[in-house]
Amino acid sequence: QVQLAESGGGSAQAGGSLRLSCVASGIIFRINTMGWYRQVSGKQRELVADISSSGTRSYADSVKGRFTISRDNAKNTVYLQMNSLKPEDTAVYYCYANVNYARSYWGQGTQVTVSS
């Protein structure tokens, strides 16, 4: 079993910053891709950013230039640095990890709220 524990969510002013962290624990010998998704009420969950085991990164167009994803393989941790936040970034953010033999796991979600 694998568990993903998220932290760092909360409230921020427009133009401010937040840093999300996600730690994977359990029976893990390899983490392939880790990433972050977000979901707004009434909409489908969407990819924000992800990063492969080799360090290749991808971002949603809406966050390019503002968000940065990184990982610490020794700690089984992925981070999302969110700068220049906008009210439209308000959502529940979910950590995602593809581990071992292509098994996928999700965190419980953490609320991010950005005020005008």
Q: What does this protein structure show overall?
A:
The chain is an all-beta fold and 116 residues long. The protein has no helices and eleven strands. The strands form two sheets. Strands 2, 4, 5, 6, 9, 10 and 11 form a seven-stranded mixed sheet that branches. The chain starts with a strand and ends with a strand. The model has no long low-confidence stretch (mean pLDDT 96).
Number of extended strands: 11
Given the C-alpha coordinates, what overall shape results?
Answer: globular
User: Mind summarizing the main beta sheet?
Assistant: 7 strands, mixed
- The proportion of residues forming helix, as a percent range, comes to under 10%
- Structural classification: mainly beta
Average pLDDT, rounded to a whole number, is: 96
- Individual helix count: 0
Rg over CA atoms: 14 Å
User: How do the helices and strands follow one another from N- to C-terminus?
Assistant: EEEEEEEEEEE
Termini gap: 41 Å
Low confidence ranges: none
How much of the sequence lies in strands comes to over 45%
Question: Topology of this structure?
Answer:
Layout: E1 2-7, E2 10-13, E3 18-26, E4 31-39, E5 46-51, E6 57-59, E7 67-72, E8 77-82, E9 91-99, E10 103-106, E11 110-115
Parallel strand pairs: 2-11
Antiparallel strand pairs: 1-3, 3-8, 4-5, 4-9, 5-6, 7-8, 9-10, 9-11
